[in-house]
Design a protein that fits this description.
Blueprint: E1 9-20, E2 31-34, E3 38-40, E4 43-49, E5 53-59, E6 62-69, E7 73-79, H1 84-91, E8 94-95, E9 102-103, E10 113-120, E11 126-137, E12 156-161, E13 171-175, H2 185-188, E14 206-208, E15 212-215, E16 221-225, E17 232-237, E18 244-245, E19 251-252, E20 260-269, E21 276-285
Parallel strand pairs: 15-21
Antiparallel strand pairs: 1-2, 1-3, 1-10, 4-7, 5-6, 7-12, 8-9, 10-11, 11-12, 11-13, 14-16, 16-19, 17-18, 17-20, 20-21
Length: 286
């Protein structure tokens, strides 16, 4: 069914309290922690610009190679109004709850925040988004007197966003009409920006032999199992681009070359669960 984004709702933010990179380069033990999400009522527009750039290298009298890089990212939010307490929290200002006075100073340091939202689609489903790390600047004050027509003086607040230190991620998003997405994802999405931990993950596929030496004269097939019932198993070798469906009696090893090192890529997937990937290295002998 066709679908087109047609709406914006459930604008939320949360303060980032820490963003710790992995202990080793390329590791997966980095962690980002956020406070509880806060709802911002009256969302009008949310415009995100990744400002990506690309360039082409010319050689041999023609385009030879192209590369792209992610640039500065901005999120521009136009809202009906931003209450003083939320304005202080987003901009690092001071709000006195006893007097109601909001004080902005030259020493204000805006915190890093995460921003989430729901984009309604024309087919009744939603696109759910988290922009994971950014800082906002004070909005312009553009006001004018009332005339014979209404002028809505709604504030626009702009934030500069970047990737997280913990995992280099800068955005999470799902479409609720995607068959690979859990049916109840909309009920849990805004509980935490670390949405990946909210999804049940398929058990890791387990190959036999697990890794190491692969003797072609002794092992005609690599067998793969998975503890998740009805999980779909697929595989490909490092030089291949297409995934192959796994079937008994297993992965044929007869086409592998002796005295080589091969990488076997495995993935296990199931509708409504997060897909799991495993890479295995084999030293092929005969």
């Amino acid at each position: 069914m066709k679908s087109v984004p047609i709406g914006l709702s459930n604008l939320v933010y949360a303060i980032m309290t820490s963003d710790t990179p992995p202990t080793t380069f390329g590791g997966n033990d980095g962690i980002t922690i956020y406070d509880s999400a806060v709802r911002v009522v009256g969302a009008i527009t949310a415009n995100f610009s990744p400002n990506a750039s690309n360039d082409t290298l010319f050689a041999d009298d023609g385009p030879y190679e192209t590369a792209s890089t992610l640039g500065a990212m901005t999120l521009e939010l136009n809202i009906a109004d931003l209450p003083p307490a939320q304005r202080a929290e987003l901009l690092g200002a001071q709000y006195d709850e006893e007097t109601g006075i909001l004080t902005h100073s030259a020493d204000d340091v805006p915190p890093y925040v995460v921003v989430g939202m729901a984009i309604k689609k024309s087919n009744g489903h939603s696109r759910l988004i988290w922009y994971l790390k950014g800082k906002f600047t004070a909005p312009d004050d553009n006001n004018q007197t009332k005339a014979d027509s209404i002028n809505w003086n709604t504030p626009t607040i702009t934030g500069n966003f970047l990737k997280r230190d913990s995992d280099n991620a800068w955005r999470f998003a799902v479409d609720t009409d995607d068959t690979n997405v859990a049916a109840d994802i909309e009920d849990t999405w805004f509980n935490s920006p670390n949405v990946k931990v909210l999804l049940d993950r398929v058990a890791a596929p387990e190959p036999v032999p697990p890794s190491g030496e692969l003797d072609l004269s002794d092992i005609p097939y690599i067998t793969v199992t998975c503890d998740t019932e009805e999980a779909e198993l697929e595989y490909k070798f490092g030089t291949e681009s297409e995934w192959n469906e796994y079937a008994e009696p297993g992965i044929d090893t007869s086409e592998l070359e002796a005295d080589s090192v091969v990488v076997l890529n495995l993935r296990a997937k199931k509708e409504g669960m997060a897909t799991t990937y495993v890479n295995v290295n084999y030293s092929v002998v005969e």
